[in-house]
Amino acid sequence: MFDQEWLAGSPPPRLECERIRLPPPKxxxxxxxxxxxxxFEFLLPPEESVFRWRTERARLGTHPVDAHLTLEVxxxxxxxxxxxxxxxxxxxxxxxxxxxxDASPMAIIxxxxxxx
Length: 116
What we know:
By secondary structure, this protein is of the alpha+beta class. The protein contains 4 helices and 3 strands; from the N terminus they run ααβααββ. The protein has a 3-stranded mixed beta sheet with strand order 1-2-3. Strand 2 and strand 3 form a beta hairpin.
């Protein structure tokens, strides 16, 4: 999901969430309501677990992309997915996060104003 230019960047390129195309809002009776029709689910386990899994599969040789993986790279990648999930949530889409395959989905609950 992350190309070599992103991985090699120091610091990594800034994520431009505003470039993510959002569906149009429902305006007329016969138009689909994309905001009610779709649910986005992000699987975001703890960084240490992801690093352990990906290090193991690199050792097995099944995923060469993970050969030079670091915990910091995993943290940065998961942070990108968290920011995308929050962006979609702030724009009215249904977003759930799971910390594992067997974990229940969690909704995003905010108690204060969200950062811009």
